[in-house]
Amino acid sequence: MLKKILLGLLILLVIVQFIRPSRNQSNAASVNDISAHYTVPDDVQAVLKKACYDCHSNNTNYPWYTNIQPIGLWMQNHVNEGKEELNFSEFATYQLKKQAHKLEETAEMLEKDEMPLGSYTLVHKEAKLTKEEKELLISWAKSLQQQIASQVTK
To answer: Is the pTM of this model over 0.85?
Structure first.
């Protein structure tokens, strides 16, 4: 009986390898990218790319293990949820009030150490933010949030 269960699980694992989620990769920068509409200093852009863009942009850097299912399916779902919450590649499509709110949330999540996710930095050590990088992102997000918020109240 146990052999039949294990054989069934093995067959299921092989079959699921043929399910391939679509990849979140684009070759060109989006015209709606936050950096196309607002000042994003080079040091901030570098930190965003290393710690945020895999889940919050239109261009995810997929590690080799995402070719193994169900890991790839789980990761793609995670990326889709991250982009739904905040997508820097489509930032300019948001209404100004939403842009300001997303930046406010970004600063709050960083201050509370809720981003980047621990499950992400566990595997992607390079995405773990130093105190200085975190302060840099928080300062930039708050400054840009205030700049955008001032446009909303005009």
So the answer is: no
